[in-house]
Write a structure and sequence with these properties.
Blueprint (H helix, E strand, L loop, with lengths): L13 H6 L29 E5 L1 H6 L11 E4 L1 H9 L6 H16 L11 E2 L11 E4 L17 H15 L4 E5 L3 H9 L4 E2 L17 E3 L4 H5 L4 E5 L2 E7 L11 E4 L5 E9 L2 E6 L18 H10 L6 E6 L5 H15 L5 E6 L15 H5 L4 H12 L5 H15 E3 L13 E6 L6 H8 L7 E6 L15 H9 L5 E6 L6 H9 L1
Parallel strand pairs: 1-2, 1-5, 2-4, 5-6, 7-10, 13-17, 13-18, 14-15, 14-16, 16-17
Antiparallel strand pairs: 3-4, 8-9, 9-12, 10-11, 11-12
Helix pairs in contact: 3-5, 8-9, 9-11, 11-12, 13-14
Length: about 500
């Protein structure tokens, strides 16, 4: 690689950066530069940065090339080799590798480009990517410890980072990798290395929207002076105005445990005025859903969302044993078999094993998915036992009827489908990427309700974190939409043993 040329978007030396007023650089860490829009004021002492991308970054996010704003990107030849070796197949990784290859082909398609001088990343219309892309065009030898054999791909990339650091001492050369061991080795060699953060929806998972807000004890004193109330369709509505309202979101649940208790859902928000609607008490036997009643406040909130025909998308997050699957199936069966709002229930999940994979499975699509649907079978057994009428024969007939209305589908065959008047349950949604989640949710046609269930503490997909999970993605993006709701279930209701194990182990 020749010395990067100067020009618009090309890397400058520190002296040239000072003369030109310097680039705007991010306050965050290097890989946050491609992910955040927060900028510091122009500073002449900031050094231009060159990001060296590991292969797993591109296979994880094929648009990563264009996520580093004004900074430059360098691709080692070994990264291109690994992309080539992963491009075959129908997996998500293979599709991402092919997408990156097409983007590179588009960037370098022009014959009058000088590859050694870098290619402007804006050529394909990505106006936010104002840096340049450089490819390794010659061998780069650098001394690495003898304990790191150069035949390994990771070590060759580390050698390129070291060589770039030695050749361009005026630049900050940073390795970006999703591989923890790769970053550890880089830091052991004194090379800057960071994770790729562009796919992070939230930096701190504790900031994830819970869907519930506890009101202060003096809520009525501060919001009840000009309050209006009325009754409609069996519910009581309150129009309140005060300082707490701007922090509320549509379909958020609010509760008050003072002398005048309140449990309501936010139906409208307009400045400092909100309309609150009281809830149906699903904890009472008269409102049982397929024989299931809510055992705590959050479960009652969840059933109000699941049974509301105006809510098209529901996400339930909680630890093991909080009742996510049971509540979703009970609401689905009630609206499919009793009120006939939906024609059938479709259940799908990501097939990511917890332990060793058991290999190929025989049978049809539904039979192949059965080993992954143990949770579904367990909950159907509980729901079937709630029907005490008819004895054993009645329960057997109910079981057959239920199974005829529930279809288990593999995630692999969802693309291109449209579900009309279906109740779609996405189980173990924490193992889906944002792209997979987008593919699933956009399958919904008229009259379809989508329910996402998951536990963000049990992510099994490689390179996926709590902050970048597809479940976190949809919870954050659907927040405040009038036809979506979210609840974080807090209390486990499975058994005292399961509750103690969740806390103690």
């Amino acid at each position: 690689m020749a010395a990067p040329a100067q020009g618009s978007g090309a890397p400058n030396t520190a002296a040239n950066a000072a003369a030109s007023g310097a680039r705007l650089v991010q306050v965050h860490s290097a890989s946050h530069a491609g992910a955040r829009a927060q900028r510091a004021a122009p500073a002449a002492h900031e050094r231009p940065r060159l990001f060296v991308l590991d292969t797993n970054v591109l296979m994880h996010d094929p648009s990563a090339l264009f996520r580093f704003q004004e900074h430059d990107v360098f691709l080692p030849m070994m990264t291109l080799e690994e992309l080539d070796s992963h491009k075959k197949g129908m997996s998500e990784v293979a599709r991402n590798a092919r997408q990156v290859s097409r983007a590179l082909d588009g960037l370098f398609a022009s014959e009058d480009l000088d590859i050694e001088q870098g290619v402007p990343l804006t050529m394909l219309g990505n106006v936010d990517a104002r840096g340049r892309l450089f490819l390794q065009t010659q061998a780069m030898a650098s001394m690495l410890p003898s304990s790191l054999p150069m035949g390994k791909a990771d070590n060759q990339i580390l050698g390129v980072v070291r060589a770039l650091q030695e050749r361009f001492s005026e630049r900050d050369v940073v390795l970006v990798s999703k591989d923890i061991n790769m970053r550890i080795k880089a830091r052991a060699l004194g090379l800057p290395a960071e994770d790729y953060f562009n796919d992070q929806v939230l930096e701190d998972i504790d900031l994830l929207y819970s869907g519930v807000m506890q009101l202060p004890d003096d809520f009525w004193n501060r919001h009840g002076k000009a309050m209006e109330s009325w009754q409609q369709s069996g519910y009581t509505f309150y129009r309140v105005t005060g300082p707490q309202v701007p922090s509320m979101s549509l379909n958020q649940f609010v509760y008050l445990e003072a002398d005048t208790p309140l449990a309501a859902q936010v139906r409208e928000v307009n400045g400092r005025t909100a309309v609150l609607q009281t809830l149906r008490d699903y904890g009472h036997l008269k409102n049982a859903v397929w024989g299931i009643t809510a055992r705590n406040r959050e479960q009652n909130f969840a059933l109000n969302l699941l049974m509301n025909p105006e809510v098209d998308f529901v996400s339930l997050v909680g630890q093991a044993g909080t009742g996510k699957t049971l509540l979703a199936l009970a609401a689905g069966l009630s609206q499919t078999l009793d009120s006939r709002r939906f024609s059938e229930i479709i259940v799908t999940r990501a097939t990511v094993p917890v332990g060793e994979d058991i290999g190929y499975l025989p049978g049809t699509e539904e039979e192949k998915m059965q080993p992954w649907m143990g949770a579904l079978e367990d909950n159907l057994e509980v729901l079937n036992k709630t029907d005490e009428t008819g004895g054993e024969w009645g329960r057997a007939a109910s079981h057959d009827l239920i199974r005829s209305r529930i279809k288990v589908k593999a995630l692999s065959f969802m693309r291109g489908r449209t579900f009309i008047n279906k109740y779609l349950v996405i189980d173990e949604a924490q193992n889906l990427t944002p792209k997979q989640m987008r593919t699933l949710v956009t399958r919904a046609g008229p009259g379809t309700k989508v329910v996402c269930l998951g536990n963000l503490a049990q992510i099994d997909t490689p390179y996926l974190t709590e902050g970048s999970s597809g479940l976190t993605f949809v919870v954050d993006r659907f927040k405040g939409w009038a036809h979506a709701g979210h609840i974080t279930l807090q209390r486990g209701e499975r058994s005292r043993l399961a509750d103690f194990a969740s806390d103690a182990l």
